[in-house]
Amino acid sequence: MKAVATIYTDFSEKFGIPRQGALAHESEGVIVFEPEYRTEDALRGIEKYSHLWLLWQFSENVPKKWSPTVRPPRLGGNKRVGVFATRSPFRPNPIGLTAVRLIGVEQTKNEGVVLRVAGVDLMNGTPIYDIKPYLPYADSIPDASSGFAGEHLMDTLIVVCSDELWGKIPEDKRGALEEVLSQDPRPAYHEDETRKYGMEFAGFDIIFHVKETILYVDEIKKGNLTTKSKLL
Question: How many Å separate Cα 20 from the centre of its chain?
């Protein structure tokens, strides 16, 4: 298989990426196709769908050895379950699956037709293997069981950030950042309330700490912004 496209997002490192795209509705990405697939014919009719499936590669985890058991964050990071009972990135084949919302199909001068999507949980520069339409009548199963993954689904943090710090983030990025922070980006086994964490988002370094159920943003400073990220 070979990649048909690459997605560019605000997440330049693995730390801080939403664990599920549906939990970060406002996080956006731009899908740029490889020259071979950069044709309007290949996308004809795609604008009629509201959501799409992305099949992609955990490109940062390819060299790592897989394990038959993993420690999911939903279980506190200290209980092992089978890898095929999770969505862990450390798998025999590093393939990811995400349903995203299609915002628009845009014609650009240098990249041809691109797709703008939302609800992404992919790192900037992730290879996309395939794109398929999401079909509600076939893909949605309302009474499906979510196993242990649904046990702590509503566990979120309250995000506290001063107006001065929020003002450093572009207005159209604040909602996505707050969503990501509220989902607690920390490794599940970290509980030290005095420890500060840093994550990169949209070209900014976000420094924060967590105390009980509140995440405090301590500092926001300008970081590095890749050329492709500027598409956003």
Answer: 6
Please return the burial class of 154, using the count of CB atoms within 10 Å of its CB with bins 0-12, 13-18 and 19+.
exposed
Residue 161 CA to residue 153 CA, distance in Å, equals 24
What's the one-letter identity of residue 175?
A: G
Please state the pTM of the whole predicted model: 0.87
DSSP element (H, E) containing 231: none
Let me know: does 120 contact 103? Beta carbons within 8 Å.
Answer: no
Q: What share of the chain is helix, strand, coil (3-state, %, to 5)?
A: 20, 35, 45
Contact 93, 83 (CB under 8 A): no
Find the length of the chain.
232
Contact 127, 2 (CB under 8 A): no
Which DSSP symbol is given to 65? P
49-83 tens-digit pLDDT: 999 999 999 877 665 677 899 887 666 667 888 98
- Per-residue pLDDT tens over the stretch 11-51: 998 888 887 878 788 899 999 999 999 999 999 999 999 99
For position 190, what pLDDT does the model report? 66
Q: For the beta carbon of residue 175, count every other beta carbon within 10 angstroms.
A: 14
CB-based burial label for 206 (10 Å; 0-12, 13-18, 19+)? buried
Helix (H, G, I), strand (E, B) or coil at 189: coil
